[in-house]
Design a protein that fits this description.
The structure is a homodimer. The N and C termini of chain A lie far apart (about 45 Å). The first copy, chain A, contains 12 helices and 12 strands. In chain A, strand 5, helix 5 and strand 6 form a beta-alpha-beta unit. The N terminus of chain A is likely disordered. The first copy, chain A, is of the alpha/beta class and about 325 residues long. Chain A has a domain of about 190 residues: 3-Layer(aba) Sandwich (Rossmann fold). At the A-B interface, helix 5 of A face helix 5 of B.
């Protein structure tokens, strides 16, 4: 990472077995940027550390090797945090705080770069047309509350000089490969991913629902850029809304039609779900993420690109467009 | 309290030995609104409970009697929270969270009104001319960070139905009676209070410094109004900036001159303090607190009134104005 000079560095990745964690790890290995310490609650591959970092003493083990750079991705997702109040606070808040405190307690001249994966769930309705960089954090879920609290801790610990933190509010990642997870936002990927795999997908909300997206490729780009950034540019406000693509579900489906053809879009089945609709109703739709853009974070160019990147990165044979 | 109907209610006050706690208690006793449970780390009078509510098990004892209404005022002040990082987080964050969790764990139909004393320190520079109700929470102190986190917890616990919370961002209380405390904002009161008592006061910042004020009388009014408010009006955003008086130090001194005469103002000694100036530089100066005002919270009418209320409420003989 450029900010650390050209020598090899130690890099800790929490949540390394997750989708973003695996893609980030692959890129870091590919670039040969340093020695990787991979951590998750399940194995993230040979040599990875498996533990619950919200348990006393575990976070200390993770920072004992004094990693120069920490990507803190570990969290339980929104649906699970909403369903299990105690677990959400234990993992997403207490776990993060234990990690931050473990770094602080190393002390001396140890001051790693900490890149924290936050979320647009730190914002809650009602919204302006586009959420600016000075809009209030009024989350409407426990997950969003926990992410906001971690952002605040990251700012305060950075201000006190315990580490050099930067928080990135990732758009909803789309197209998320693999199996659906417990995130209430899962259908945004499902309605693209399953039809492209020849399978039916359930759409639980109306096509007018607007949301904010980034491809996994763009998200990995954000994280790597954050690791290299001169944080002196951030001042005291160390948490940034990332640029993204604002699209309605209808626009998602139009893009799918353009990229993969009419027949693929027929695999989307409308099945309204009031619980998911209520959660999604409180979510951001559009941002004016000019600070992030000015700092060099780059969004996807279009939702069509988001679908194309999915086909390329997951090595899915491109369907013939127009084969309705 | 009106929202609880006309029967007598049980009221818990944390931080009851503090300045606001004592004035609030006096008013509640005067109005005969209910049975008071007073708590602090030091005695708040005969029959009060003395404990450290950040210690495991203590918060549970406070809510065991199932108070209908809880005024949560307990906190360590900004200067101390900045000087002692661990203590600040232990009392201001963990203590509040333990209290909130103790309420949650009573369960059943127990759902008290919780009135939380937050602070304008939840905001940090750079600011617009007046801070609106949708401005970002980007605190620049550990105290402000802790208060913001408690606001977020209050919203989430209320959303989940564990209690019926409302957070009030109190302006800097002025004129604070009695001895100076460790708050970095202490001089805003000191330059009024000490000269009125015939004593010298130190002014550590330039007269151009602008800040946001409420009298103790107005602050007690906010708390009592919050206890009575129909919280259905709040929607999901349960933390409110309180209306106040925006004044520069120079305007404070002018008001002192008008109320108490030129000679009194001569007791203010300029002695710049870079540490205090740096802290104060990050603090709010002015608000557009229209939500709070629309909900019936009432500020003082002028800084002159703030000084007059101090003389009345503390039974200080009014100096003869113009006796320079």
């Amino acid at each position: 990472m450029a900010h650390l000079g050209s020598q090899l560095v130690k890099i800790l990745v929490t949540g390394a077995a997750g989708m973003i964690g695996r893609k980030l790890t692959a890129r870091l290995m590919n670039e040969g940027t340093g020695e990787l310490i991979l951590h998750d609650i399940v194995s993230a591959g040979a040599g990875s550390i498996v533990s619950d970092f919200s348990m006393p003493g575990e976070a200390e083990k993770l920072v004992a090797a004094r990693p120069d750079l920490i990507f803190h991705l570990a969290a339980i997702v929104s649906g699970e945090a909403e369903a299990d109040f105690d677990k959400g606070y234990r993992i997403n808040l207490d776990g993060t705080r234990r990690l931050f405190d473990a770094i602080r307690k190393v002390g001396g001249d140890y001051k790693p770069r900490v890149v924290f994966a936050s979320s647009i769930a730190v914002f809650g309705a009602p919204f302006p047309d586009a959420i600016g960089d000075e809009f209030v954090n009024a989350p409407l879920t426990s997950y969003g509350t926990q992410k906001t609290i971690c952002e605040l801790l990251l700012s305060d610990y950075s201000r006190k000089g315990f580490f050099d933190g930067i928080g990135l509010r990732l758009p909803t990642i789309c197209v998320r490969p693999g199996k659906p997870n417990l995130a209430a936002s899962g259908f945004f990927s499902g309605i693209i991913r399953e039809p492209l795999a020849g399978q039916e997908a359930v759409l639980p909300v109306p096509e007018t629902v607007r949301h904010w997206f980034a491809s996994p490729r763009a998200a990995i780009g954000f994280l790597v850029h954050a690791a290299k950034l001169d944080t002196a540019q951030l001042g005291a406000r160390r948490n940034l809304s990332m640029p993204g693509i604002s699209a309605t579900v209808g626009e998602q489906i139009e893009a799918l039609r353009r990229v993969a053809g009419e027949r693929v879009t027929k695999l989307i089945r409308r099945q309204p779900d009031a619980t998911i609709m209520r959660i999604v109703d409180g979510w951001p739709r559009n941002f004016d993420a000019r600070r992030g853009a000015a700092l060099g974070f780059r969004a996807d160019a279009s939702f069509d690109d988001i679908i194309r990147f999915h086909l390329e990165d997951e090595r899915i044979p491109a369907p013939r467009a127009g084969s309705a």
